[in-house]
Amino acid sequence: MPTVAPYGSWRSPISAQEVARSGVDLGEVRIDLDDVYWAESRPVEAGRVVIVRRTPDGRTADVTPPGTNARSRVHEYGGGAYAVRDGVVVFAEFADGRLWRQNAAADRAGDPRPLTPAAPDAGLRHADPVIDPARRRVVCVQEDHREGGEARNRIVEVALDPSEGEPVSEPRVLVAGHDFFSNARLDPAGHRVCWLAWDHPNMPWDGTELWVADVSADGAFENARRVAGGPGESIFQPEWSPSGALHFVSDRTDWWNLYRLDDVSAAEPGMPAGRPLAPMDAEFGQPQWQFAMVTYAFVGPEEILCRFTRDGTWRLGLLDEATGAMRPLDLGGTVYGSIAAGSRGRAVLTAASPTRGSSVVLVDTVSGESLVLKRASDDAPDERFVSVPEPVEFPTEEGQTAHALFYAPKNPDFVAPPGELPPLLVKVHGGPTAMASSALNAELQFWTSRGIAVIDVNYGGSSGYGRRYRERLAGRWGVVDLHDVVGAARHMAALGRVDQTRFIIHGGSAGGYTTLCALTFTDAFQAGGSYFGIGDLEIFTRETHKFESRYMDRLVGPYPAMANVYRERSPIHYCERISCPVILLQGLDDRIVPPDQAELMFEALRTRGVPVAYLPFEGEGHGFRKAENRVRSLQAELTFYGRMLGFEPADDLPPLRIENA
């Protein structure tokens, strides 16, 4: 018989240590010849990223040696950290920002060789490499911080075979003149190249331009012309088909859909270019916070493996370009990630579901057969303790509808006393353009298995519901998201699913900002947790990095012209309104939201007598990668909420200093 115990006090087998161990992040899949590659971020190795190779005989081995960290620092968020061609791997090293070359085969691997020059403080950074075998070079994005001020971004050429013993030469600039670049891709013949470019104040999901150029005999890019995109159209993942037709994703119809442009010379600037392939109210694109994001790959001359999202769920399909027909491919997942294609209809991708964590999966698109090559964790939670999300739609401001995923408490060993309703943890994702994921999340199950309900809110501004839904947040960050997270909590209380006197809210980065706004400008919550959240929008817009330095122009308004609005929406100026307890967690190496944001908020609350805890973490940036820090932060949150909301966790938890407790 289950034990009767209050919500929040249930003993769970899903420990903080297990959550940290389950946090291996799998992504950036590639196929080279008959080998499959992917990137692993390993919390138990201080969060370093390793490139892994699997050969056809089933052997799996690390390609990048111990001590390396294959992670780009461009835009701070990185992505696109490596490329592989004919057994040669080129990767970006996080510590120094340089590109390095590594042979994949163990019998000829040797030590990595640098391809780009060293610069103090990783002042020369690289991302999104593409190997051009005919010219023995790498084409990539470079971000140059060496001259101070705002970094300079461009597309450059790097020699793939630098002379042994000679100093590495400065990369040759191929394209410059815009604030940002990505997705430089050569056509199969190596005669043409495409890329994306955009300028302040646009973010890549606001407006990008798709450019095409000819490649000269010496490798220069000539006759560059814009073929699609502009300030009000977001282009995503330009790619050449095996036959040389240019494909791309555009949100020109509100939804990120796939297009084909057969004749790039006929495209006229300012005119919509390309014909739609399988148009639908679904998203074939994502906000490009990182490089080399992929939602489709060519598995045949006119067949494309696609992943797309609709109503908060990702799907797979095989698109026949000749007929426009989309054949569903069901691998049992609800979330699909990076895709790469090889020969003979083979493809590799990442897949996850509400009861299954992320895996690297090899797929035969002809037969439909699949093989799991790597799981993020071999210790998945017992499904009896796993809460499966329920999609929720709820009314919000001005007659709008918002979306969320609700997770009820679940633990077969416990039931609550009669009449008791569970506390609710409102989870606020970052971005703020991100999207709540239905994939198994051990951290989320950490809460539900202890008797705490969770709602993961896709507030206005989230991706996955079309451009108009994303643009609900334009000029209204700190308003629309605030209405939606409060509305989600109150909606579940009105349904009788949760206790409206025990609302908790937490989030990281942009989600941390919304969390602090909710605690400051409403009385809906009884406790909150901010992970590297923004407390002062003015400080953020003055101190943050280049990629986001003008982001606030669209989310709030131009600064300093609208400085009064920045102050009105900055929780730090209204700390006297906060009366409920807050826990603040911050990486001390965070370049995106510097530590002074959390420190100012902590001092203001401590001085006012509000219960507050502050946990700074050495060696962590924007997001915690080290297993021990992830364990400590989860345990601290559980301790904090238990003490503030009056439940006694069953865990053996380390002490936590709470000011004004």
SSE blueprint and pairings:
Blueprint: E1 3-4, H1 16-21, E2 25-32, E3 35-42, E4 48-54, E5 60-62, E6 82-85, E7 88-92, E8 99-103, E9 113-114, E10 124-132, E11 137-144, E12 152-159, E13 172-175, E14 180-186, E15 192-198, E16 209-215, E17 221-229, E18 235-240, E19 246-250, E20 257-261, E21 275-277, E22 296-300, E23 303-310, E24 313-320, E25 326-328, E26 335-341, E27 346-353, E28 356-364, E29 370-375, E30 390-395, E31 401-407, E32 414-415, E33 424-428, H2 442-448, E34 453-458, H3 467-470, H4 480-494, E35 503-508, H5 510-521, E36 527-531, H6 537-543, H7 551-555, H8 563-568, E37 582-587, H9 596-608, E38 612-617, H10 627-645
Parallel strand pairs: 1-32, 33-34, 33-35, 35-36, 36-37, 37-38
Antiparallel strand pairs: 2-3, 3-4, 4-5, 6-7, 7-8, 8-9, 10-11, 11-12, 12-13, 14-15, 15-16, 16-17, 18-19, 19-20, 20-21, 22-23, 23-24, 24-25, 26-27, 27-28, 28-29, 30-31, 31-34
Helix pairs in contact: 4-5
